[in-house]
Design brief:
Layout (H helix, E strand, L loop, with lengths): L1 H17 L4 E6 L4 E8 L2 E9 L5 H17 L8 E9 L22 E6 L4 H9 L15 H29 L6 H20 L5 H6 L5 H5 L5 H4 L7 H22 L1 H22 L8 H17 L1 H6 L2 H17 L5 H18 L10 H21 L6 H14 L3 H11 L7 H14 L3 H14 L4 H13 L3 H14 L4 H11 L1
Parallel strand pairs: 3-4, 4-5
Antiparallel strand pairs: 1-2, 2-3
Helix pairs in contact: 1-4, 5-9, 9-10, 9-11, 10-11, 10-14, 10-15, 11-13, 11-14, 14-15, 16-17, 16-18, 17-18, 18-19, 19-20, 20-21, 21-22
């Protein structure tokens, strides 16, 4: 009766795979063991089916432990959703001693184990018990066929199952090999060439150079230079910035272009770059540049892929990708210089753009036009909010911080240019902007301009001791000792704990 048991097993598996689309994880035709999987009602059901005669309870216990250990060894293959493990044995007779409670010792384990022993007397009931949690109808498996007919049909069923496993694997592999990363290499080359050119004509760490060649600079954008939203994605601030972005582009771009194809990849990359750039314009008043927004858009594209192919995504890149995104966002929150607006905006833009174009070999979905409208509406809203300064109303405060850092870096010409433009709409930071510009003028040898700025600072903020002190130094240098002494005395009065202020005051008072 061995043939009858073997036929019953393979007929049951054939029904589950070809009628109800179970995933074939493993097939061993010689030993009669098959592993299947299917997600039902948010649970991953993994089945280990085999036909063998188990005569004693301890034999069954060893089989259960072996199957459970095999499942745990391949636990990473079954991410996403709660896991249910089903072990099915097809046999002519059950074990001769008591065996029904052998599964109880697995009740407290992390993964629930369900046992179905299909002996000749219990096949129909066990089959019904198995298919109930799988939410499928019980098939009619005819056991009245002649043994010769059963044996004749076995090779075909086994061959079809092995073929189905191969087809499923090839279909999964083809998802990651739809396109070739041609545009990714072009983008890498363009970004590197632009970086080298800027280093030849100036410096990629120079604010002045970056603004001149298309960095995201809000005042210029508000004057109509909207093209900066795009051109800024090809500029990078220093070698480390370029290296990190190009490394990410190489790996993420290759993956996304292989999955989506070149045309869809182009739409996703540039749509994400524009979305991230517009988010930066809305939120971040500082000068910004880099492909980070577009690169975060590639993260968004992979997340959209994960929504469409949940199990495949979680088995391959899923958790690692989510961790990397989390680390990058956390890093952006902790490091003030990171343009979080571009990063998060790019991530959202990339996900939305992926919904707009969808994945290859998918029919047009009714929500794709909705994704287009969502993208366009969000872009329009960001333009409006950026122009009205709803989120970056304290733009001048950011400029004050920026020029302070530039003065420390001795980039005095950049300070003069930025503060002069910011002073057109100082937003309550006129004294601070003038003070930093006066310092840049002073260090550039333009004493008259520095003195004029300091006079204005003192008229606006008479309690700013540093302005009195710097003006005293200038007046001393010009030989106007009486005026210098007056300013030095005021600085010492306002900040009596400053040794430099006290020393200059004593020197000019003699």
């Amino acid at each position: 009766m061995f043939i009858e048991q073997e036929y019953y097993l393979w007929k049951m598996v054939d029904y589950m795979v070809h009628v109800h689309q179970f995933q074939v994880l493993h097939v061993n035709t010689s030993h009669g063991e098959i592993w299947l999987e299917k997600k039902v009602n948010r649970k991953n059901h993994v089945l280990r089916l085999s036909h063998k005669q188990l005569n004693w309870r301890n034999e069954l216990s060893r089989e259960l432990e072996t199957g459970y250990r095999q499942l745990n060894q391949n636990r990473s293959l079954f991410r996403g959703g709660k896991l249910e493990f089903h072990m099915v044995f097809v046999s002519e007779h059950p074990p001769v001693d008591e065996w029904e409670d052998t599964v109880k010792e697995y009740n407290d384990r992390k993964i629930p184990l369900h046992l179905y022993y299909m002996s000749d007397e219990t096949k129909e009931q066990a089959l019904e018990d198995l298919f109930k949690p799988l939410d499928i109808e019980k098939p009619e498996i005819h056991r009245s066929l002649r043994e010769e007919d059963m044996e004749a049909s076995l090779p075909s069923m086994k061959h079809q199952l092995v073929k189905k496993q191969r087809e499923q694997r090839e279909a999964a592999a083809s998802i990651f090999d739809y396109g070739r990363p041609r545009l990714t290499y072009v983008l890498l080359a363009v970004n590197i060439l632009v970086f080298l050119y800027l280093e030849m004509v100036g410096s990629t760490t120079s604010i002045e150079t970056l603004i001149s060649y298309g960095a995201k600079y809000n005042p210029a954008i508000m004057d109509g230079e909207w093209w900066r939203i795009l051109t800024s994605t090809f500029l990078h601030i220093g070698f480390i910035h370029l290296f990190m972005n190009m490394l990410a582009l190489y790996y993420l771009g290759s993956a996304v272009e292989r999955i989506y194809g070149t045309l869809r990849f182009a739409v996703i990359y540039f749509a994400a770059g524009l979305f991230g750039g517009m988010a930066s314009f809305m939120i971040n008043p500082s000068v910004a540049a880099g492909a980070s927004g577009a690169i975060f858009g590639l993260f968004g594209a992979l997340l959209f892929f994960g929504v469409q192919y949940k199990q495949l995504f979680l088995r391959t890149m899923g958790y690692n990708l989510i961790v990397i995104i989390g680390i990058n966002i956390a890093f952006g929150v902790m490091v003030p210089q990171v343009d979080n607006g571009a990063h998060i905006g790019g991530l959202i833009g990339g996900f939305t753009a992926s919904a707009m174009v969808h994945l290859p070999k998918h029919a047009m979905k009714k929500w794709q036009p909705a994704a287009v409208l969502l993208y366009a509406g969000a872009m329009a809203a960001m333009v409006y909010l950026g122009m009205t300064g709803a989120f970056n109303g304290e733009q001048s405060r950011m400029v004050v911080q920026e020029v302070s850092e530039l003065n420390e870096q001795e980039s005095y010409s950049d300070v003069i240019q930025i503060t002069t433009q910011a002073l057109e709409e100082p937003q309550g930071y006129e004294a601070e902007l003038l003070f930093h510009r006066s310092y840049a003028y002073l260090q550039s040898g333009e004493s008259a301009e520095a003195e004029e700025d300091l006079e204005q600072v003192i008229s606006i903020a008479p309690d700013l001791a540093e302005a009195h002190y710097n003006l005293a130094l200038l007046l001393q240098q010009d030989g106007e000792l009486e005026k210098a002494a007056e300013r030095a005395s005021k600085a010492a009065e306002l900040n009596p704990d400053n040794a430099d202020f006290q020393q200059l005051n004593e020197e000019l008072a003699q």
